[in-house]
């Protein structure tokens, strides 16, 4: 099933009210993840990014040089994405993160910046794994 692209107008950065309206009940999960990342890394820089019309607007929290986590809004839910270098990838593989996440990361194409994984956020059950992934990202 093709996901509906939202926030595709480059000239209009999404506002919190619009985001809440589009995400519906999952908006609270977005806020919880955002808060958790900033509690673990208070110097995190938040920014909306527009990589192109094909992808629309996305949100990320960065440290000085790299993105810690990406938020990809969808209708009624969102995804979070991570890119892990080799050391962090090894740490994920040795962690207690869900096996499905590990297998997706294992199967991901390797780029210069590492391997990426996207996680659907529809229910709060994934929050524990996301928190572990943020901790691994920050440690490596």
Short description:
The chain is an alpha+beta fold and 140 residues long. The chain has helices at 16-23, 27-40, 86-94, 99-107, 127-139; strands spanning 45-49, 58-62, 67-74, 77-84, 115-121.
Describe this structure in words.
- The structure is a single chain.
- The longest helix has 14 residues, at 27-40.
- A hairpin with an 8-residue loop joins strand 1 (45-49) and strand 2 (58-62).
- The protein has helices spanning 16-23, 27-40, 86-94, 99-107, 127-139; strands spanning 45-49, 58-62, 67-74, 77-84, 115-121.
- Helix 2 runs parallel beside helix 5 (127-139).
- The radius of gyration is 15 Å and the shape is globular.
- It has five helices and five strands; from the N terminus they run ααββββααβα.
- It has one domain (16-139): Alpha-Beta Complex (Aspartate Aminotransferase, domain 1).
- With 140 residues, it is α+β, with helices and mostly antiparallel strands.
- The protein is 38% helix and 24% strand.
Features:
single chain; 140 residues; alpha+beta; Aspartate Aminotransferase, domain 1; five-stranded antiparallel sheet; globular
Which regions are unreliable across 5 or more consecutive residues at pLDDT < 50?
none
Spatial separation of the terminal alpha carbons = 35 Å
- Helix/strand order, N-terminal first: HHEEEEHHEH
Q: Which structural category do the helix and sheet elements fall into?
A: alpha+beta
How many individual β-strands? 5
For the biggest β-sheet, the strand order reads 1-2-3-4-5
State mean pLDDT (0 to 100 scale).
94
Tally of DSSP helical segments: 5
For this structure, what is the CATH class?
Alpha Beta
Largest β sheet strand count, sense and barrel closure: 5 strands, antiparallel
Helix content: 25-40%
Radius of gyration in whole Å, from Cα? 15 Å
Specify the overall morphology. globular
How many domains?
1
Tell me the CATH topology. Aspartate Aminotransferase, domain 1
CATH-scheme architecture = Alpha-Beta Complex
What fraction strand?
15-25%
